[in-house]
Amino acid sequence: MISAPGDGSGDQPDGVPLEDGDHSCDHSGDHSDVAEAGVIGWDAGNLGIPDLAADESLIDPTGEIAAATADLDDDSPAEAADRVPDAPPLTLPVVEALLNRRRSEVQISPTLSRITALMDLLGNPQRAYPVIQIAGTNGKTSTARMIDALLTLMGLRTGRFTSPHLQLVTERIAIDGAPIPVERYVETYADIAPYVDLIDASSAREDGLPLSKFEILTAMAFSAFGDAPVEAAVIEVGLGGTWDSSNVADAGVAVITPIGIDHTEYLGDTLTEIAGNKAGIIKRDAVAIIGPQEPEAMNTILRRTIEVDASVARFGSEFTVLDRAVAVGGQRLTLQGLGGVYEDVFVPLAGEHQAVNAAVALAAVEAFFGAGSSRQLDIASVQDGFAAVASPGRLERVRTSPTIMVDAAHNPHGATALAAALAAEFSFSRLVGVLAVMADKDALGILQALDDTFDEIVVTRNSSPRSMPVADLADLAADVFGEERVHTAARMDEAIALAVDLAESGFEDSSGTGVVITGSVVSAGDGRALAGLGPE
Description:
This protein is α/β, with parallel strands linked by helices. 36% of the residues lie in helices and 16% in strands. The protein has 16 helices and 20 strands. It has an eight-stranded mixed β-sheet with strand order 7-6-5-8-4-9-10-11, with helices on both faces. The protein has a seven-stranded mixed β-sheet with strand order 1-19-18-17-20-16-15. It has a three-stranded antiparallel β-sheet with strand order 12-13-14. Strand 18 (456-459), helix 14 and strand 19 form a beta-alpha-beta unit. The longest helix has 24 residues, at 182-205. The radius of gyration is 24 Å and the shape is globular. The two termini are 37 Å apart.
């Protein structure tokens, strides 16, 4: 194995047109998936992702907070000292530092009691608008973004809650298809903070746990959507389904994307157990939109629909992809929806898995608006909605010459989809992978899924403290790829620079060479940041 030089160190409502003159039931945006050719910064400092939990001095790096409050001690009488709050003004770094002191989103406690109590105090804003909820192992975020885009182009004001974020936490809470402003994020936290303290105190009296970071983020999203107000909320489950804090909402449409083996320490070791947990988002009298599943997962989900008397639509039965053709910048689809056939649908995303996600998203929106065999959504609105879709970090091109792409594949199921998309839709003369994986993930399975995809691989760390040590990942990679194909770099910026050198080595024309940064959502986010792309 070759190491890169350097000593650097490394996460319907009214008015929506239907076909044939019926009426029932705009996420547009200019999304460029190619950064300016030749412009990319390899300085890890460009990531802009400080480890606040590790260094609390970063809360006030310039000393502005201390300077702004220094006069208080000089001008106030001594006896007033106790009446002056000893707290800095709320900023995004301060809020994140406070939230990072709590249990992380992968440290779940199987109960909805805390989030239910918090939402009660907040007036249950999650009941103020209809909800489409999405669970599954892979494809949740892309499907959520597609649903959001379709609803927007059909005239609704939407809220979207997804996780994890690629670059900035405000990406998780979107209104009208865009992350909420930092100021609004901070204000939303400040609004609910007193109620968070009440729930924490109540839980402590019963020897319970305080609210987790994800529970608070969920409450912030529901509150922000209520304040907007939105006309529909698209909610992605954080982990699992049954006990996920987002499940405090009663979704009228429950979407289950393909289920694979992941988070076994929380969800179980088998597809049956995992599917049972994820199927918990299907509530009584809801409509369940089910993506392609292994038989044992499908059987488990269908049992849940029978228990709660939910309506069912399945990929491959009630809806499907009829035709798919690779096109410049994406793919062109013919989709069989619940209400009929939708032709000439352009989706600016690569991969057969994204075509499946599009079919699932379309069926979910049809179910939301009540479309059926005799009522079809307006085809032009569907076409416009899909054309406006952006899913950053999902096989996204961030640079050309050589091509650099980022993908958030973080488990074997996602890595398999990535490998298939690269093989079917791209023709690289030489392709080098940059891989950084979380320590709690199936790194060996990810590597095995990508073995035939990359000519060489550079293993590194991403910006998360949960990133697997380089030496450990390199040992696993050597077992799969062979030592001669494995290289190491201590930091992501060094890894990308080394991968570019490896890709271009021996080629006068770099147009057919490429680099793919993958292994984690954080790795994809780091790659975007280093390419100079901002949050979306």
